[in-house]
Structures are given as C-alpha cells and as structure tokens.
Amino acid sequence: MRTKFHTSKKLEKLVKKWICTKQNNDCGLLGKWNATVFYVDRKKCWLVSNGLTKYNVLLPDVKSSDLINIEDIFKNSFYSQLIYDGIVIDFNQLDATVGGIDFLPTDNDKSLIAFQNQRLYELDYWKHTYATLANFPIKVLAHRLNTIPIHVGKGRKMSDYTDSVREMKKALSQQTPLSN
Fold first, then answer.
1. Strand order through the sheet with 100-104
2. How many domains does the structure of the chain reveal?
3. Residue 38, H or E segment
C-alpha cells in the first residue's frame, strides 16, 4: 500500500528529486494527504494534512538529508500525534495502513489548500508566541489544530460539524482491522 502526498509548490521545489511522475488512482486507506512547508526560527517544518479527515501532523526541522528517512519520520510523528490525541492504535497497523509514501506534484485541491493556509495562519500566531523551535510544543500545537471545529457534511446542520480527531478516529476504526 502506498500513501500519496501532494506537495505545495514551495515544498515541491525542496523535494524535486523525490517527486513521482507516475500516478495511479490508489490513495491508500486514509486517502490523499497534502504537505506544505513553513518556517520556524529559520528551520523548515512541514504541515501534513489528510484530505479525508483534515487531520494535521507537524514535522519539525526537516532537512534535505532527512528525506531518505521521511517515511519513518512521518510514521513516527503520525503515531505519536495519534497517541497524544487519544487515538490508540498499534504501530504495526498504522505502518500497514500508511505503507510507503509517494510524493506527487500539487493537485490544486482548493478546499484543502485553503484549510492548510488557515492552519498556517494560526501557526504563525503561535510562532510569535514561542519564538524559537526549541520552545515550540509541536504535539500541543498539532492537537490544537486537530481539535478546531471543522465542517464535513454537505448541509448546514450542527451535526455536520466535528473535529479532525473524531474524524481520524472514525476513519481508522472503519479501515484498520482491530488486532487481538
């Protein structure tokens, strides 16, 4: 199983040699993800958002030498963020669900790009509060991003509003077989 990461134009320039040109329609069990880059204290950080659940994972201080191990870095960050958000899953199940990662060029998903831009705006406020990456509480800020109310339905009912943590919990419970 392969998971697709659609990169923003900024991130695409940084991971140029990792971009796949062949595209298949299989997006993995959790659907596609969009990744963009932002800077804290002149360090490159990534905001990775799931298209299906709007769940966010922050990857701090990603260097070009880290791209060789980006799959492990993402899986470990994703797993620890899930645990911090109260979603208990076995790491081996998560590893099988995510599988490998394919970087693709931007898909121009306007809805998800706008969603990420709003999250980057919120992170910009916290960047000024914490000033340096050493003081930046990554898991706490990602949890704050994931608990902001989002709209997932087509209508305007109150039941269409939820948060990313609940949506990810639903997606993982439906798509990942429980181990005994």
1. 56-59, 43-50, 33-40, 2-7, 100-104
2. 1
3. strand 33-40
